[in-house]
Amino acid sequence: MMESVLSEDLYRNPHRLSHCGKTISFNCKRAPGTNDNEGSELIFCSLSFEREGNTFLKAADGAAVISRKRLAHVDIVKCKSVTDAQKRATAPCVLVIKKSEKRSSFQYSLLTLSSSNRLEPCVEFKLPYQMKGAVYILQGPTVLWRHEGGVLYTSPQAEGVRQVPIHFSHCVVGELPLHKGQVFVLGLQKLPEESTSQTLGYFVEDGQVFDGSVILPHLYISITQCILVVAADRVDGVLKCDVVAATSNRLLVYFENGVVKDVCQLPFEQPENIQVVNTGRYGSLFAVSFCEGHVCTIWKETFQIAALWSSVTSIHVDDFLGCGTDQMLLVFKDRIIALEEFLITDLCGISFSHGQDTDAPKTSPPPSENYLLTLKALESRLQSGLTVLQELQREVTVKESVLRQSVKALTDVVSEREPVLTQHEQEGLIALWDSDDESKNEALDDKIHDIPAVSSKPRIDKLWHRTTEGRMVVGVILTTDRSAPVTNVSLSILTDAGQCSRPAVIQTQSQVFWLPAACSSPSSSSSSSFSASTFPEPPAKKSKQHNAISTNDLNACRVAVTAVTKLTPLLNSGRVKCHVMLHYIQTPDAFSFMSNQRPVVLHCGQVALDIQNNLHTELLKTPQLIADEVREDFLSLLAVLDHWVFHIDSPEYSLGDINGWIQKRVGCKKIEVSPQYLLLNSSGPSALMLLNWHQITPFQGELHVHSSQLQMFQFLDSLLAYLPESCSIQPLKGAGGKGASKMFALALEKELVSLREYASLLLCEEDEEKLKEKCFGYKETPDAGSVEGLQKCRAMCQRDLERSNMKLSPLVDVGQYRRLIQSMSKIQLNGDLAALLDIQFSPLMCCSGFHG
Fold first, then answer.
1. Dihedral of alpha carbons 132, 136, 137, 140, sign
2. What integer best gives the mean pLDDT of the chain?
3. Taking Cα atoms as reference points, which of 561, 483, 550, 472 lies closest to residue 515?
4. φ and ψ at 617, to 5 degrees?
5. Does the pLDDT at position 589 exceed 80?
6. Which one, 6, 36, 188, 283, has least CB within 10 Å?
7. Cα(150)–Cα(164) distance, rounded to whole angstroms?
8. Which of 538, 491, 539, 533 is nearest to 512 (CA)?
9. Can you give the residue ranges of every domain in the chain?
10. Taking residues 711-717, what's their average pLDDT?
């Protein structure tokens, strides 16, 4: 019997899996050598897909010796790519069995393929029996199987073979997609004193027993063939999860928290595995594989069948094209080295096949909700743009008509003809001088459309203060005019003079935040400390369809300025009232130079020192409330917390829903006054943290953290456990804007100096002395009285003219010009990058998302 086995082909029972966009096949082979030394080894071959050739090419291969005994029989039990708990990344795993000569003992080895393409042993164990039935390789990696009614498992953490202490009559195995994923066994346990049974779940890692009905109802346990946990979360210690289960009566059932939500009739019997395919904006698919080589796909959104295939050797889900979304690889015929017949598709436009017909019966992908919303937004924007364009065209038509009438009237006057003018109503205009009746009717409209001029000085809208942990925060909200912008804005705090001759100045640290402009209202205008002059609008010719727009809406700009100071100097001075002074520099327009501008000081008011006025009281109670108190708490919190910015880059895997992961943390709530910020309140004011995640690409993003240094390190530690192993987190310098502004200034200075030097190099190609000798050969002034002297004077005049032309339009070498232009372009790109960083990390932009 053994001799017949050894006389077979060198390769036996190939197995295949997908990992990082590649397919990896494992096989057993007899090791080369003499008959005495002949043994068995495990070989692998990694293939990557090439679009141009529409084929799979070998990326790597290797082998590992499993047994050196001649009569030992080695075979592959199962292979799968799972999460390695120690490396925090997915790794290909293969389970190998080595049978003894007498088949009395069975040695099992679980090997992992490292990133350096080496097979490394992970778990080894011996059993007195051979595994029969379904064998699972799960995260950990964990090997789980059933034997004689019991469930057994082993892993690197288990340190040996262990058995689940609960005896299940029927059981289902799965894993939760949590931050710290857990492998569970779900089954029915008979009650000792009753004829009924109960649904129990058992977590393999910690041995915790839970109510299994939160995953699957009691009636579905005995008929479920395979399950897939789509989403899971713990809310107040209670497990919430969405599950897809394939049953023995040809049904695919969608459960939410143990309740049936949708059902789809499957076209084949005996389902074996369920995989999810994320196709991007078109939604997701469930790929169900069956016995005898059948495959079926179902749309997650509509829960309807999308496509069917038969004679499939294996199906794999991965990003084989490297486009950021998943595709399905259906293998119809393969060998250990290459794939002979295969199909790569996502049923949404991507299709690559070899030796197969790509026309599969399929339904069109359901429209994504985000896709429809994007179309509606673009359609609305296009309609709005078309309306503006039509209004501009009407205005141009009116102006052209006025110009024609003016030219005709001027021509008539010059020709001494009587000018004939059309009525202004025909041109859609309003006359400069109307009749008495019309002027009375228009008087009211003119009063309504009178626009109060915005004061050039900032208007103080509100003054507040908060105290927290030995510091006081003073804030001012002011309104400025965009036509006369203010710069270098800061706050200073002065104590009462008392018996002293002058008040004391308290050292502060200021920050500035932009706020959306508030709508003009009587209350807001009356609260201004400056009187606003009113200038009536002249009744000039204008289109009747023109709508007057308030200058408050166009030019008003609201700014919040905060200042942080220590409480100790205030308490030691015994002063209970402090004066708040606003310092700024105002320029007439955005292009004015600031060198001659003097700083202006404006008294904002007084604040009474109140130690009981704690920070973020309303913010902690109701962060979802949109109110002035919550906005002030939030601004004060930004002022006192330290700020870090981190750039996260994942070159191999997409980052996933990091914002959703942050929101699922305990105590994390969204701040409605600034929705892009999340408040994390774990225990008390000292543990407060503000988080802002900005997704740049699916593989890159920026994380803003406002907290203490210890809290920041703890959060980054938990985030690293969630992110892929290949991720890199780099802190960005100058997050507060000072470093970025300095980089921008240096880049501009370098650009100006380089431009001056390059221009000098182009214009001064020839030496000045050579140029003189070339253009001015005569040094003495010739005598113009003779014919020869006159000719010499003419020659000098011609050379002067040539010299002048050379200065005005000098000749430049083309090669040197191209090299200088390339160098200048690189310098300008660096300047543009510095300007972009200055804009992104400026403190004026960090609160632009406030709600009014």
1. negative
2. 75
3. 561
4. -70, -55
5. no
6. 36
7. 7
8. 491
9. 370-448, 454-520+550-608, 641-732, 740-840
10. 87
- Helix and strand numbers (H, E) in the chain are 14, 44
SS (H, E, C) 294-352: CEEEEECCCCCEEEEECCCCEEEEECCCCCCCCEEEEEEEECCCCEEEEEEECCCCCEE
Look at residue 382 and tell me whether its pLDDT is greater than 90. no
Three-state secondary structure call for residue 746: helix
Of 603, 553, 601, nearest to 580 by C-alpha is 603
Residue 492's closest CA among 507, 512, 479?
Answer: 507
pLDDT value at residue 4: 32
Q: Distance between CA 501 and CA 504 in Å, rounded?
A: 10
- Asked if residue 609 lies in contact with residue 472, where contact means CB atoms within 8 angstroms, the answer is yes
How remote is the C-alpha of 125 from its chain's centroid?
Answer: 45
What order of strands is seen across the sheet that includes strand 314-318? 314-318, 327-334, 339-345, 351-354
Q: Percent of the chain having pLDDT more than 70?
A: 71
CA dist 123 and 116 (Å) reads 19
The residue-averaged pLDDT of 122-126 equals 89
- Are 43 and 58 within 8 A, CB to CB? no
Contacts with 627 (C-beta within 8 Å, 6 or more apart), sequence order: 618, 673
Which amino acid appears at position 146 of this protein?
A: R
Q: Tens of pLDDT along 715-753?
A: 888 888 888 888 888 887 544 444 566 677 778 888 888
Euclidean distance between CA atoms 559 and 478, whole angstroms: 5
DSSP letters for 485-496: -EEEEEEEEEE-
Does 528 have pLDDT greater than 80? no
Q: Beta 509-515 vs 556-566: how paired, if at all?
A: antiparallel
Q: How far apart are CA 413 and CA 722, in angstroms?
A: 84
Residue keyed to tokens 């190099």: 761
CATH, range 454-520+550-608: 2.60.40
Q: Does 376 have pLDDT greater than 50?
A: yes
Enter the tokens of residue 570. 């205030």
Name the band, by pLDDT with cuts 50, 70 and 90, for residue 296: very high
What does the pLDDT read at residue 448? 41
Element (H, E) at 144: strand 142-147
Quote the CA–CA distance of 831 and 828 in Å, as a whole number: 5
pLDDT tens sequence across 638-649: 888 888 899 898
Q: Report the alpha-carbon angle 162-168-170, nearest 5.
A: 125
Distance in angstroms (rounded) separating the CA atoms of residues 488 and 585: 6
Ranking 233-242, 348-357, 796-805 by mean pLDDT, the lowest is: 796-805
Tokens (6 digits) for 428: 């859609």
Query: Looking at the predicted structure, is the pLDDT value of residue 427 above 70?
Result: no
Cβ–Cβ < 8 Å for 616, 637: yes
Return the structure tokens found at 718. 């938990």
| Number of C-beta neighbours around residue 542 at 10 A | 15
**Residue 49 contacts by C-beta under 8 Å, 6 or more apart in sequence?**
21, 55, 56, 57, 320, 321, 344, 352
Per DSSP, the residues of 786-841 read SHHHHHHHHHHHHHHHHHHHHHHS----HHHHHHHHHHHHHHHHHHHHHHHHHHHT
Whether the predicted pLDDT of 848 surpasses 60: no
The whole-angstrom distance between residue 793's C-alpha and the CA centroid of its chain comes to: 75
Q: Which of 39, 205, 199 is nearest to 138 (CA)?
A: 205
- pLDDT score of 554 more than 70: no
Contact 243, 220 (CB under 8 A): no
Cα torsion 148, 149, 154, 159 to 10°: value is -80
Identify the three-state secondary structure at position 516: coil
Which CATH number describes the domain made up of 641-732?
3.30.310
Q: Name the 3-class secondary structure at 570.
A: helix
